[in-house]
Fold this sequence. Notes:
The protein has helices at residues 2-20, 72-80; strands spanning 42-44, 47-53, 65-69, 98-103, 113-122, 125-135, 149-154, 160-169. By secondary structure, the protein is α+β, with helices and mostly antiparallel strands.
Amino acid sequence: MQIGFLRFLAMTVFSLVLASCGGDWGPEDDGDGFGDRDTPVRTDVARLALHQGTNNGTGATHERQVRFLPDQASYEDALLNYASDDSTAQDVDFDVFQLLLIDMGTRSTGGYAIAVSDVYEEEGIVTAELRYTYPESDCSVTDVETTPYLFLRLETQLPVVLSEEVSYTEC
């Protein structure tokens, strides 16, 4: 009789422990020790446009490019090819930040632009959403070659992927 009572008591305690967990038995992903979140957590990533413009000032033509600048010297060298004489390189701590050079390439007219829509971290990956703006064919734009560019500083050391979209200016 005593063994039956102890078994009943043990089952009751076990049931109460399970009930206190709320049936939340998935993997840890929301900080409560259990996994009840179905969607990944998105976290904003700090960003700053260090330099942005529409003319590289060199007169040289080139193709579209997006590249990571790995150190201060690479940043300063790249900036010489894009910014005007009054633009100076800022000190960037490359142990904290990543620096991207986004360049639309040489365009035959004005009316082109680069914008950053959003930058966020989700499941250990940073996504930078870029929007390239093109002029509609009937827009009145300057008839001079331009090279839209952006030096973008991201506060992360996580891997970065780019999400790019094109939009058109309505005139």
